[in-house]
Amino acid sequence: MMQNWSIHFWWVKAHTGIEGNEVADKLAKEATQDADKGNIIYVRIPTTTVATELKMDGLIKWQRQWESTEKGALCRSFFFPTEEQRLKMKIPITPEFSAIISGHGKTKSYLHRFKLTDILMCPCNEGEQSHGHLIYECKVLEFQRSSLKQLITPGGGTWPTTNSDRVARYLNAFSRFVKSVDFYKLQ
Fold first, then answer.
1. 171-180 and 95-102 are packed helices; what angle lies between their axes, rounded to 10 degrees?
2. How far apart are the first and last CA of the chain?
3. What are the residue ranges of helices labelled H in the chain?
4. Sequence spans of domains, the chain
5. 132-158 pLDDT, tens per residue?
6. pLDDT digits (tens, 9 = 90+) for 102-115
7. Which of 13, 77, 134, 180 could be joined to 163 by an S-S link, Cβ 3.0–4.6 Å?
8. pTM: predicted TM-score of the whole model, two decimal places
9. How far is residue 151 from each of residues 7, 101, 147, measured CA to CA in Å?
10. How many CB atoms within 10 Å of residue 58?
C-alpha cells in the first residue's frame, strides 16, 4: 500500500542528534572493541580472495620445486625464470613442441637412451640427432631453419637465439618451425 511519501537524501555533518546515525555509530564502535578483544565478529572472506591466495601459494610452492629440482634443465632453459610468467604465455602444447623443449621423445638421442634404437646419427649424417642438432645444424631442416631465421632477424633479433628468447620473444616463429619438422621423415 503506497502512501504519498517523499524520501530525501542529504549529507549529515555528524551523527549528533540523529537517532539512526547514533545507533550505527554505537554498533561500529562495539564491533571494533570486540575485534580488539579477539572476538571475530565477521569472518566471511570473498571466495575470489581465497582463490587468489591459494593460487599464489601454489605458484610459490611450484616455483620452489622448479628451482630446486636437478632434472629438467633443458626445459627450464626455454622458459621464464618464474612459473607465474610462463603461465601467462599461450604455449602450444603438441607432442612435437613438448619433445623439442623437453628433450624427451622424437629424437634418436632420446630413443637411444631407452634402447629403442641403436642409431644415434641423424639422417642428414652431420651429427647425433638431438633437439639442438635439429634446431641449429640438421641439413634436412635447412629450409625450415632459414624460414625461422627470416622471422627472427628482421625485427632486430640475432641468430642463433637462446632457448629462452626463442620462446619468450619468438614463440610464434619457433612454433611454426617445430610444426614444419617431419619427425617421421627424420627417423
1. 110
2. 85
3. 19-36, 47-68, 73-78, 83-87, 95-102, 108-113, 131-136, 142-152, 163-168, 171-180
4. 90-187
5. 999 999 999 999 999 999 999 987 889
6. 888 888 998 898 89
7. 77
8. 0.64
9. 68, 19, 6
10. 11
